[in-house]
Amino acid sequence: MSAPDDAELARLQAEAEAAEAALKLAQAKAALAAAQAARAAAGGSAADAGGSEAAAADAGAADSEEKTDAEDDIPASAPRNPPSPRNVTPDAEAPASAASPTGPLDADEVAAVVAGYTFEGATLDLGALMNTEPVPTAQIRIPLAMMNRHGLVAGATGTGKTRTLQGLAEQLAEKGVPVFAADIKGDLSGVATPGEPSDKLLARTQAIGQDWKPTASVTEYFALGGIGKGVPVRATVSGFGPLLLSKVLGLNATQESSLGLVFHYADANGLALVDLSDLRAVLTYLTSDEGKAELKTLGGLSAATAGVILRELITFADDGADVFFGEPEFDVRDFLRTAPDGRGVLSLLEVPGIADKPALFSTFLMYLLAELFEILPEVGDADKPKLVFFFDEAHLLFKDASKDFLAAITQTVRLIRSKGVGVFFVTQTPKDVPSDVLAQLGSRVQHALRAFTPDDAKALRATVGTYPKSGYDLERVLQELGTGEAIVTVMSEKGAPTPVAWTRLRAPQGLMSPTPDPDIQRAVHASPLLAKYGTAIDRESAREILTAKMNAAAEAEAAEEAAAAKAKADAEYAKQQAAIAKADAAAEKERQKEYDRLMKASGGTSRTRTTRKAEKSPIEQVLGSKATQTILTSVIRGMFGTGRR
């Protein structure tokens, strides 16, 4: 390892001094608060006590006003009960002298948090520690190099998960890391437009030590199958694979295995499965008279199961899902682009058009992630990720998933880290993510949870049990968090979890509402990817090949049937001719017999034995008569003078 230069040493020294100053300030505040509490406990003057109460009331009012006003842009904070001076479990109460009326953490715990979030390398800033009020000197961060160790952003609806996602995405892109995120509600598109400052927003950001300025990120818009304004993202059925397709179709384990056999048959016979019509053509062929023999060679695939899969595919296509499959197939490497100025491109997948197809949406995202795993090389531990993939509405992915599907997800999440890809699941509660997947996550940003039902309370206790021990009564704090606040723990550069920190999160620097549609359309038309993916291609695939094969078979069968019919007709004709000839011969024989009988009966001879004299013609009869002969003799004699004078 090369020795650091002067600039690097100066930077490290400055960070160390800043961390030390922050630690001393936190310790001084905590000591002052402890002294005030001790004095009050010892019987301080009523004026002092009243002054302390007034100060606390003013601070609480200011904090409340900041939350209800400044957080309107995030959106507004929900009402909540003020935290207790010391949120600890009953069996771990601290002595009164150590209690701090300003927040749930004492000086030592604040110092531990500051130290736990002080890192050597590049970081992403999440926000400032909350100890009733923000502590701007105690910044909560995530090491950039640890973003490929995956993470979870969870919380009830309306608690600020989308803004957390937007803030992380903006910072990643600013540091040259490409980002992919699914824009479920359409409001993430604001990252492409500079944010709009307001007094409320600036008051909030200043309170947490954020140097806020409006900034737009380099953004590319995509849409599944072209349903929406973005560049179309399509996949071939072959690329999607039987496992993911079975999840979308809701097939059981037997049907899933059978669908795998169909894919194997298509691959072995050179039948390209580009869209759903190709897969339907293969299933139709295998269940037809022409394909029954080949169906038997597939072993476990029965005609009944093939029929079930075919019916599900038809229903799936009728719902409009066939537009997501086709060519040109999207190359996921196009998600790994950076802008000319070195910033990462933020790729937003627009999905409001398929809100009624949640299983397809979530499974399509899993397909993209699996494609990244297949094509990217191993990179090991890098200074920053090659891509960070935000998986919004992650609970849809795991709902009704088969064991094989969950195993595939777990393996992908476990191994894709070494490809330089980080995955953040965004959902409502950690229980939405299977424990095997949850175990692979290094960073957690937990927004508020609600406990309105016994099931909610059970989920809340389960969530609390997954956190390291801390000075917080997490079961209470997680219900008291305001919008834009979260409980955070991340993976440090050494691979160890950081202390649990109640954090007021930074505000995004892009627009916190959707970018206007005309701006999005201009960006899409200017994209170099539109020429590559904008026009669908329909090449020869399984449907055309099998259609031609079945047509040829039908034509051959028709020709064979015609030839057989002609041969049959010819044979029948010959038979009839032979019968006619035989009948004629028999009739002739009968006539001859009758004639012979009649001749015998009349005393004549059989015409078969009598030769009749040939009759002379009229001319011969005239020339042969005696009169004619006499006349001719006289004429000849007169002409030649031979007659007597």
TrEMBL record:
Map out region (Disordered) in residue numbers: 40-104, 599-620
Q: Which residues form the signal peptide?
A: none
Q: Tell me the superkingdom of the source.
A: Bacteria
Pfam families for this protein: HerA_C
Q: Which Gene3D superfamilies match?
A: P-loop containing nucleotide triphosphate hydrolases
**Which keywords are on file for this protein?**
Coiled coil
- The Helicase HerA-like C-terminal domain covers 134-613
Which regions form coiled coils?
Answer: 9-38
Specify residue ranges for compositional bias: Low complexity: 40-62, 92-101
Q: Which PANTHER family match?
A: SLR6007 PROTEIN (PTHR30121:SF6), UNCHARACTERIZED PROTEIN YJGR-RELATED (PTHR30121)
Protein's name in the database: ATPase
Originating species: Microbacterium aurum
